[in-house]
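[agent] plan:
  1. take the single chain provided in the ticket
  2. run structure prediction with default settings
  3. attach structure tokens to the ticket
  4. add a short note for the reviewer (M.T.)
[agent] executing step 1
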Amino acid sequence: MNETGLVAFAGLVSDASDPANNGRGLFIADSASSVAAAVREGQAVSGGDTLAAFGRPSLNEVGDVAFYALFTDDPEGTLARENVGLYRQTATGLIEIAREGQAAPNGDGQFDLPQFLTSTTPNFSLRPMFNDIGQVAFLANLVETVASSTNDKAIYLFLRRRVA
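[agent] step 2 finished; step 3 output follows
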């Protein structure tokens, strides 16, 4: 919950009268008891993939949401460990922050977004940290590093459309 009374949460919609709008999503509720979807299962992301499941959201004072998500390009909706991304939903749209296998900012290694997927179930204890000016901090393991096997974890900061 933020200071303006907004609450972000993961949920499942099940409405027999409107089956086209059923499914998982992240939602924002305000103090007046209205609920709106921030992102929904089946929403398109870059690369032709679609969102399939969501982690625990972080909400800032502006009402933007940062979250880990599983995405799929499989018509059957199969979830796999390598289909993890970190996103930020704003009033102007969805921004991809990091994706499993993306090159680390210094070019040494690739992101292995940690422990978000346990088997095929999202881990809701993990969430990104998010401030009111839109910066997102997140933990990532690194794989395929050249320099050393001891530099395989870091906290990264997303600011102004890039990871540092």
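[agent] step 4 note for reviewer: The chain has a mean pLDDT of 81.
[agent] ticket updated
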